[in-house]
Amino acid sequence: MTTLNTIKYHCIFSKSLFFSEFVVDDFSTNASNTTSWKELSDTIMEGGRSKAVLVSHNTDQFQRAILFTLLDPQSCGAAIAGIKKYVEMDLTEYKSIELRVRGRGQYTGYEFVIRHKSERGPKIPSYVHYFEAPKDFETITLPIDAFEAYLEGKPVKNAAPLDKTKVTALGILAYGGVHVHRKQYGVGALEIDWIKIS
């Protein structure tokens, strides 16, 4: 079993020990890794009613994970549904987060979320990078330096930069789009082969 200390060790030292990337989860070889991810949806807030679940998908030809989400926006359009994973990582020597994914369902807009310094709670900013899930499997590259602080769907002005030495949570969310032009609702599925840091 991979522990938080193991994750921290590899992230700090793998680049100098002959590795150019760190595998957060490779669901194509171990779909049972889905158990290390927990739901993060708007039900943690008053009036929230969306839902998310990450499941393993095993066939005789492949295995991967699927993030199923139900976005049920409030009257203002607010909705989030997704997953989170607690970690201990130093990403100083890394440049990007990579995901091999494809999207299905009623929407394809997602956000990858990073938190640092063990900060938790709905009123704490997250560092976010939006991405579009492709129709066919592709590798999505999200530069770590391009993540920006957001709170309740809005950019946070004058926020402290992401502390890459103390990354303590990762997340993937479908969003309703309360503060953006694009609005999303209904059922979506994000198929995930793997998540890496390079």
Describe this structure in words.
- The chain has one helix spanning 4-13; strands at 22-26, 38-41, 51-58, 63-71, 80-89, 96-105, 109-116, 126-132, 138-143, 148-151, 154-155, 167-175, 186-197.
- The protein has 198 residues and is mainly β.
- It has one domain (4-197): Sandwich (Jelly Rolls).
- A hairpin with a 4-residue loop joins strand 3 and strand 4 (63-71).
- The radius of gyration is 16 Å and the shape is globular.
- The model is unreliable at 1-18 (pLDDT under 50).
Number of domains: 1
Task: Using the coordinates above, name the CATH class.
Answer: Mainly Beta
Task: Kindly state the percentage of residues in helix.
Answer: under 10%
Distance from N terminus to C terminus (CA atoms, Å) equals: 23 Å
- Write out the strand line-up for the largest beta sheet, numbering strands in chain order: 2-5-12-7-8-10-11
In CATH, what is the homologous superfamily? Answer: Galactose-binding lectin
Structural class: mainly beta
- Rg: 16 Å
The backbone outline, from C-alpha atoms, is globular
Figure out the total of helices. 1
Compose a concise summary of this entry.
The protein has 198 residues and is mostly beta strands. It has one helix at 4-13; strands at 22-26, 38-41, 51-58, 63-71, 80-89, 96-105, 109-116, 126-132, 138-143, 148-151, 154-155, 167-175, 186-197.
Q: Secondary-structure map with pairings?
A:
Blueprint: H1 4-13, E1 22-26, E2 38-41, E3 51-58, E4 63-71, E5 80-89, E6 96-105, E7 109-116, E8 126-132, E9 138-143, E10 148-151, E11 154-155, E12 167-175, E13 186-197
Antiparallel strand pairs: 1-13, 2-5, 3-4, 4-13, 5-12, 6-9, 6-13, 7-8, 7-12, 8-10, 10-11
